[in-house]
Amino acid sequence: MSVLHHTRVHRSDENLARDGQLAWHIAQVAADPVEVDDETRDMIINRIIDNAAVAAASLSRRPVSAARQQALDHAVSISGAGATIFGCALERRSSPEWAAWANGVAVRELDYHDTFLAADYSHPGDNIPPILAVAQHVGADGAALVRGLATGYEIQIDLVKAICLHKHKIDHVAHLGPSAA
User: Fold this and answer.
1) Cα–Cα dist 152/158, whole Å
2) Alpha-carbon 55 to chain mean position
């Protein structure tokens, strides 16, 4: 069940209780141990396939090639396994933030991936490249990946339903930061 909250900007010197902060509510959603049901799991798997297909269709385009090369120029950190990059062999890995960048460019280049329309419009599939990159880097299993993606989708869709950024002349992609985090 969705709950709408009144949001406004608070001054830095205001003593705002944690449970009054949007970030706190987002963290509560992310930390909720609710199980992902079969229908949601299947939808997430379908979205991963859709994302990969859209990325594959854009691999030869100049922005995608440039982003891929940038990612390949950034080695995997010593604290993880790194992440794969669309258009590269599986053993060619990059740091997760650069893999997320390159894969995100590949997915967004043609702008053909999923769309959600509400108070604002969005592409919740934009959550897949960064969440997948982190999951690969830390060695998360498929269930953890699906849970992370379901959470990213839930947060982004909740934000898009409740906060229209367009009327403030802010691009809808600003909802992506909190949802992917």
Assistant:
1) 10
2) 15
Residues 6 or more apart from 29 whose CB is under 8 A from it?
Answer: 151, 154, 155, 158
CATH fold of the domain at 53-180: 2-methylcitrate dehydratase PrpD (1.10.4100)
pTM: 0.90
Q: Provide the residue ranges of all domains of the chain, joining segments of one domain with +.
A: 53-180
Q: Residue-wise pLDDT tens for the chain (181 aa)?
A: 666 767 778 888 888 888 878 889 999 999 999 999 999 999 999 999 999 999 999 999 999 999 999 999 998 988 899 999 999 999 999 999 999 999 999 999 998 888 898 888 899 999 999 999 999 999 999 999 999 999 999 999 999 998 889 888 998 888 999 999 8
Helix then strand then coil, in percent of the chain rounded to 5, is 60, 5, 35
Q: Are 76 and 114 contacting, i.e. CB atoms less than 8 angstroms apart? A: no
Distance CA 65, CA 7 (A): 40
